[in-house]
Structure formats: structure tokens, C-alpha cells
Amino acid sequence: MRSSLFLFLVALTALLSPACSSDPPVFPPLEYDSGLECSSGSTGLDAGGDASGTTTADLGPCPTGEVCLQGRGYAACMGDAQCSSTEMCIDGTCVPRTGPRPDSGPMDSGPTDPCAELACEAPEVCHPRGVVCVQCLDGTTCSAGAPVCDIAYGSCSTFQPRDCSPCNVDGDCTATDSTDYGDCITRDGESERVCVRACSATSDCEPGLDCGSDGRCAPRVGSCTGFIAAVDGKRCLEDAECVPLGSTPAVGQCAGIGEAADGGMPIPGTCRQPCGIPSDCPTATSCIGGFCVPS
User: 282: domain range?
Assistant: First the structure.
């Protein structure tokens, strides 16, 4: 019984097994995908075909806004600005430039003059940072009684050399008793021109001033103009009056503004020096709530 079953299985295996052959197997050819999407039509850019025998002439044009290149659709350029500096846009395609790149125009004219639309009546002039009419932008228009132009406010002031005082030239920083308050330097993006001393450490500076990275004694917080306004107790009706024209003041820099009775003019407040640490404050003041206040 066992031998009969074995012979049956051998015979069945022989019937199901393919005959051996030395010839390699043959598979049906794969369908070729040309990848072509469009026809360039009359442009003549894509007259050729591919290995499948398909030509772009057998395909339709690209959708609107595209250009056909080598049988594929690409977004068309609308002008030279969409091409590189060495190319130009022709029929929706960036091609090598054959002439100089056109001038872009307005950018060459430089920044817009902020005073272009403000007419000041002489002798006043337009202040470019505040865009308001002021007395001066330099000392040439100031009188002998007030010869120094404080460019932070555009106003003529008296000769009063001290740390952070306004000036026109270095000579404005030497007092009549020969005390030297440094050099006349334009600071903070040309918002102020003031006397500042050279220093190697903060100990070389007056109270409230710090020896900065430029080796000059100046406020660590805010501007020289704001520092002098606080030291002098300048009267103010808004924070902006305590800093150079066009600058951003600290909120609350003008303190103590009061409302007048019967809807009259408000009562002016006083400019304060912003601070972060005690050494930011001048003599006889303390840093409380972010401002130097009388001790």
C-alpha cells in the first residue's frame, strides 16, 4: 500500500513540473511611458519625439499660463523680473539676455525726502526726523544770544557746556573756566549732537552716566537729550517732549500732567529719566518704578 502511494506521488510531480530548457525566459515588453505632456505647436521648440515613437505633435497645447518645453508644461514668465539677471523673458520663456538689463527706475532716486510736502516759513526749516518746522538744523541760523543749535529739538540754545549738553562743534564742550566736557558727537542715529567725555570705566563718568562700548560717558538707558531734560526738570505735556524729535519715549516719561479746571489747558508735568538700576540715576534721585525720582 505504501509503495503504491509513493509511486503515485512521483508520477503526479512529474506531470506538474515544467520541462527543463537551456533557453532564457521571455517576458512581454513593458509599456513605455514617454512622460510627454504637451505640444509646443507653432513655436517649433519640441518637434522631436521619444523612444516610444510618440511626438509632441500628437499632444495638445499647455494650459493657459504655461509654456511647453521639451514636452513638459512649465509656468510662463510674464516679464524680465521673473528671470535671472542674465536672462530675459521672451514668449513666456526665460532665455539668455542679448542686451543690458533695463534700469529698475525709482529705486535709483534714493530715499524719499520726509520734508518734501512740508513748507516752512523762513527762517524756519523742516526737521527731517520730526517733520515739523523748527528754528535750526545747525548753528548757522542761530543768533549770538543763543548760538547753539540743539538738533534734538531744532531749537537755538544758550552756550552752557556740561555732560550731554547740545553743541555744534567741539569748542562748545569747553566751559569758560576751561572745564572740558569731551567732544561734540552726533549720537543715536543723528537724533542728537551733544558733548560726551571719553572714558575707560564708568567711574570716569558723572552719576547717572555709563561708560559705553564706544568709550564715551552717556546714559545707559535713553538719550543724552532725555537725561538733560530730566536733570533740568523740563516741563512737558506729553512723553514725546522729553526725547529727541522722531524718537520713541518711555511710557510715563512725562509725569504729573494735570487737568485744568473748566476744560482749560492741562497742567504741565515734568520729564523723568528712565532707569533699570540705581546707577542709571543722577545725583539726588533713586530708581523707582523704572524712573529716576527725587530721593
Answer: 125-288
Report the domain count for the chain.
1
d(CA 235, CA 229): 8
- The C-alpha atoms of residue 181 and residue 166 are separated, in whole angstroms, by 11
In a domain? residue 45: no
Kindly state whether residue 5 falls inside one of the protein's structural domains: no
Model confidence over 251-270: pLDDT tens digits? 999 999 988 777 778 999 99
For CA atoms 132, 138, 142, 146, the dihedral sign is positive
Over residues 200-229, the pLDDT tens digits come to 999 999 999 999 999 999 999 999 999 999
**Do the domain assignments include residue 30?**
no
Is 93 inside any structural domain? Answer: no
CA angle 189, 244, 149 (to 5 degrees): 90
Whether the Cβ atoms of residue 194 and residue 219 lie closer than 8 Å to each other: no
Q: How many CB atoms lie within 10 A of CB 78?
A: 10
Predicted TM-score of the model (pTM): 0.62
